Amino acid sequence: MKRLGNYIFRALFFASLTSEILCQGNENCSATPSRRNPGSMDIMCTCMQSLQQRVQNVDALTIDRSGCEVVSALDISWNLLEHGIGPRTVTFIGAQIILTNPPNQSWNTSISRITFERCLFDSIPPKSFEGLSRLTELRFINNYIGNVSSYSISGLPNLRTVEFADSDIVNIHTSAISDLPALFEMAFVRTSISSLADGAVKIIRTPQLPANNDCPKIDIRIPPSDRMSDVMARSLESVDNLPLPEIGARLHFYFCNITALHPKAISSDWFSFVIFYGNRVSTFGTGAFQLTMDNQCEISAVMLVGNYFKSIQLGAVASIQKKQQANRPSYLVLTNNTFEFVAAKGFVIHPSIEVYSVADNKFVCECPNFAWLMSNSETPRQQEIERNLKASATCNYNSISVTTFTDSCPKRDMASYPSTEIVVVTLPDEVMYSSAVSIVHNQPTTGFLQGIFILSLVGRQLLSHF
């Protein structure tokens, strides 16, 4: 406790032999009966308060630093926290966070849910959550995060939900989110990301996948194409939760601003549904989505809808494919997007993927931007896909049909296209600081997966295009 004067807490909690939890300050934290779990207590600590007595059977612990005059770092040690308090859920609000690497030993773990709201992270270091074997939900709401380091969210056997919402992230490094055998849902919502490195999200299924007990719910008499329509409706109309499709793991990117999706940024054979809606992407790299799609008893799909892409690189979606042993079709939806530049072979689609829709897209109409129309003449299926893509597409600024525009382009202009490269953006310190201040002092927001009002609007917009 020697450095207690340098931080609000040097160690967040310290369990003494008398079972007292010692923190700085002379006011007690409040303890109230838990509404969610009768017989348990909820504890709220703000600023310089302290918990003077051991509270048995703690359900929820909240540390709220948003109204404090002194801004200092909160150093979190999970083993000390669980040994001293043993809460089931933990929420940190308005704090600068330092995550301490856990010791190389096991302990009795209790935490199942962690939420960070309006917090500042210089980085999330490797193995930040190691040892939390009961953790099922991890949420970052309205935070600033400098770097999500390699293996920072990794090796958690029961983690089912990971959410980043209303946040700013500079870099997500290789294998930052990996080795999560129970993952069911991951979401990035209204979040700015400068760079997703190669293999930033790397989720590979375990060799022995348990049987899905929900399979009997699927009516196998429904044709796969009709099933796709049903999945679209079920996944985007609810206002209570980000709910369905209810069978199969899913990855969501909603209303994000992404500078660079590097090659293999998302590498997985785990997700059954990838929904990429309303995002602005500067560079979508070659094979940025390296996905092997499968669902034990349901269809699988990648849906890119309503996005703005500044640059689509060669073979950007070519690494999306269906697993060879999959029983149900895997679909690609590519509709209502705006494309500023698409490289040659930018729309090459793997033969195992069935195209559900490529309708109502828009393009920045300059002749060199349509090299992709000239790059696949040897592939009849690809020609048909691109004809369908062109048939309903319009120019972004004047609504002229792409067919009419490209008919007027000299072939030499369409065959020559500029080269592009991935750019990783690192924000200067003054920008990082100003972003951090604005986030820490903002008003709280509700996690996207816990229910947001825009889902009904999203559903209506998406379904209007089918």
TrEMBL record:
Matches recorded under Gene3D superfamilies:
Ribonuclease Inhibitor
Query: What cellular component GO annotations does this protein have?
Result: extracellular matrix; extracellular space
Q: Which residues form the signal peptide?
A: 1-23
Q: Among its keywords, does the record have Cell inner membrane?
A: no
UniProtKB keywords: Signal
Q: Which superkingdom is the protein from?
A: Eukaryota
* InterPro entries named among the record's database cross-references: Dev_Immune_Receptor, LRR_dom_sf
What the entry lists under PANTHER family is as follows: LEUCINE-RICH REPEATS AND IMMUNOGLOBULIN-LIKE DOMAINS PROTEIN SMA-10, SLIT RELATED LEUCINE-RICH REPEAT NEURONAL PROTEIN
Mind telling me what this protein is named? Answer: Uncharacterized protein LOC108669104
